Please model this.
Amino acid sequence: MADAALDALYQEIILDHYRRPRNFRPLDGATCTADGKNPNCGDALTVWLKLDGDRVSDVTFQGVGCAISKASASLMTEAIKGKTRAEAVALFEQVRALVTGEAGTPARKDLGQLRALAGVSRFPMRVKCASLAWHAMKSAMDGAAGGGAAPSAGRVTPP
Ligand code: ZN
Model:
């Protein structure tokens, strides 16, 4: 597909997830949660996770933010649901490499719709927006790793 056509497709995916964010609600019975804030842009969201053993049985988010931050959060919930903790973190690393345009990052076919975030690498100001929900997701999981059944609240501001 030509670059222009691909850009248009990716833009369409971003806008669709921004206008109709998936899994946009608090999660009953969440086992962990974390807030993410990006003061530069005004993005602020909360991610809820329900871990069933080592697997993400459900994941939701809610908050306010720009198109990129909300679309990325929405795509994140669809991407990691059903994944193991390790798989979710691996996906986080791939997305981080994708949006930062890390040199030598192969275009991963298995990223699916997440590849729509690739364009963010051309806008360094937007990298924080795109990675916000992912940092929150990882922070929630890290909190859950340490402490029993009690819901954990983490707070994360991406570097
Ligand atoms: Zn933003």
